[in-house]
Amino acid sequence: MNTLIISSSLSTNSRSFILCTEISNRLSEKGINVEFVDARKMELLPCHVGPTESMNLLSKKVENVDNIIIGMGIHCYSVNDGLKIILDRCFGKAEGKFFGIICAAGGERSYLSTMHLTQICMNEWRMIQMPRIVYATGKDFTDDKVTNTDLLERLDIFSEEFSTIGRKLIS
Asked: Which contacts qualify for 49-58: CB closer than 8 Å, 24 or more apart?
């Protein structure tokens, strides 16, 4: 099974990047081929400007993987600007793929914000979403590490279920 993990936050101290790294490690331990993309290392340009080399490369990766995990920071109760550009420019060949969402937010009240990403992926490309979402807030981290035992358990469950369901969908 080939899984693409996209950490879409452009923040230098991105908590969603930390979560994506945790999930990547867990899936790799299960023998899953994981490719990790950090949007902070990409040149992202809006639609009216044209794609960059890194955007074209990501488009090919999206096309060639079995499934995708999207890591996002929540901004104004929606997806961040980097993720919006990635979705608009690089997800053209994501149709029908299985996907999961991992997010970090500033507070506890924006947990429904992931529904915007769900709507985009399911309506635009008829993607199949993993029912479980990992949602974290600042209180779950200390010194750029996940320290909340409940969150660590949710990361374990997410990676186990993503692996199990993902394998069944590509069989």
From this structure: 51/89, 51/90, 55/85, 55/86, 55/89, 55/90, 58/6, 58/86, 58/90
- Backbone angles phi and psi of 110, in degrees to 5: -110, 25
pLDDT, tens only, 89-114: 999 999 999 999 999 998 787 778 89
CA 119 from chain center: how many Å?
A: 15
**pTM recorded for the entire structure:** 0.96
C-alpha span between 165 and 169 (Å, rounded): 6
**CATH fold of 2-170, please?**
Rossmann fold (3.40.50)
Contact 80, 114 (CB under 8 A): no
